[in-house]
Amino acid sequence: MFHHIVFFKLTHRDRQQDAQAIKAALEGLRGKIPELRHLEVGIDVLRTDRSWDVALVTRFDSRAAMESYAVHPEHKKVLAAIKDLREQSVVVDWED
User: Which residue range(s) make up the domain with 85?
Assistant: First the structure.
C-alpha cells in the first residue's frame, strides 16, 4: 500500500468557505480515478498557530498507481481549481 498525505494552508485563513471548496473539489475525485483506493479529507477545527487548514489522505496499491493519479486529467482539474485558494502545501508519502 502506498500512502499520500497532503496538508494545505489557505491563502485566506479566515475564509472557511475556501476550506469547504477545497474539500468538495478533492472529494469530487471519488470514483473518477481507478488507481485511487482511499480518499479522506478533513478541515482543521483547532485552528492553532501550528495548524494547517485542510488535510488529504489517499491510498494506492503502489507508488506507480499514485504517480498515475498525479497526472490524471481529473486530478489536474482539481489542482487548477484550488490553486488560488491555497498558499502552501506539504506532502508525506510512504509505502508499507
Answer: 2-95
Surface-to-core class of residue 66, CB atoms within 10 Å of its CB (0-12 exposed, 13-18 middle, 19+ buried) = buried
Q: What's the domain count of the chain?
A: 1
Q: For residues 29 and 35, is the Cβ–Cβ distance under 8 A? A: no
User: Tens of pLDDT along the chain (96 residues)?
Assistant: 999 999 999 999 889 999 999 999 999 999 999 999 999 999 999 999 999 999 999 999 999 999 999 999 999 999 999 999 999 999 999 999
User: What is the amino acid identity at position 73?
Assistant: P
Residue 54 near residue 8 (C-beta atoms within 8 A): yes
Q: Is the full-model pTM beyond 0.85?
A: yes
- Reference 36, options 88, 85, 71; nearest CA is 71
Euclidean distance between CA atoms 33 and 36, whole angstroms: 6
